């Protein structure tokens, strides 16, 4: 691991030790964040799977109903029956925070709470299969919105997990080892300088003792 290009001084050593302590603390926090994001992500994925199965089953029922109804009714009758819907819906979007990630939360409000308002036609002129198809579509609306919500949430969480993973790896395999290697280098240099100073002092001491001995002679 390549070390940082710094001067091997005690001030630099103190600064790097503080920096590596901060890096290790940040590494732990990011790992905890990544683990919690993964937990939340897996919960959402499991819910998404259940919702998708329910939505697909309801849409298949609706498609079968429309197919049978179109075989019984003429295209003109089908178009006339569904041309002017009686029910309308207002969609609103809020956001909730999951580990610093803002994920969407969809909600809707029907114009009329009367269940019969989902049928924009007279029952006397249409087939029962069309009623079943329209009812199936109406019943799946809430699950469909929740499915869109969970899929978008999973996408955003996956992006944040990948970003956090890269930061964890950068700290764990690049920055912290680089700081540790630089600290070891500075400590080695300081020890080497200390040994050199001790050696020089010992030589000076020996010279002074020798001079004093010669002076006594």
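^ Assign residues to that structure.
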């Amino acid at each position: 691991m390549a070390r940082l290009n710094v001067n091997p001084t005690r001030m630099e050593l103190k600064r790097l030790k503080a920096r590596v302590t901060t890096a290790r603390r940040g590494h732990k926090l990011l790992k905890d964040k990544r683990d919690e994001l993964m937990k939340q992500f897996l919960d959402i994925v499991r819910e998404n799977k259940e919702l998708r199965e329910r939505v697909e089953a309801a849409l298949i029922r609706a498609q079968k109903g429309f197919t049978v109804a179109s075989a019984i009714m003429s295209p003109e009758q089908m178009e006339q029956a569904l041309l002017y819907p009686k029910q309308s819906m207002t969609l609103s979007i809020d956001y909730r925070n999951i580990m610093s990630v803002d994920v969407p939360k969809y909600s809707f409000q029907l114009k009329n709470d009367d269940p019969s308002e989902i049928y924009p036609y007279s029952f006397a002129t249409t087939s029962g299969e069309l009623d079943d198809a329209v009812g199936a579509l109406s019943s799946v609306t809430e699950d469909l919105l929740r499915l869109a919500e969970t899929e978008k949430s999973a996408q955003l969480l996956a992006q944040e997990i990948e970003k956090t993973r890269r930061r964890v790896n950068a700290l764990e395999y690049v920055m912290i080892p680089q700081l540790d290697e630089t600290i070891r280098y500075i400590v080695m240099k300081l020890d080497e300088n200390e040994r050199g100073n001790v050696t020089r002092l010992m030589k000076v001491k020996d010279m002074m003792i020798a001079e004093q001995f010669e002076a006594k002679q």
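The chain has one domain: 10-216.
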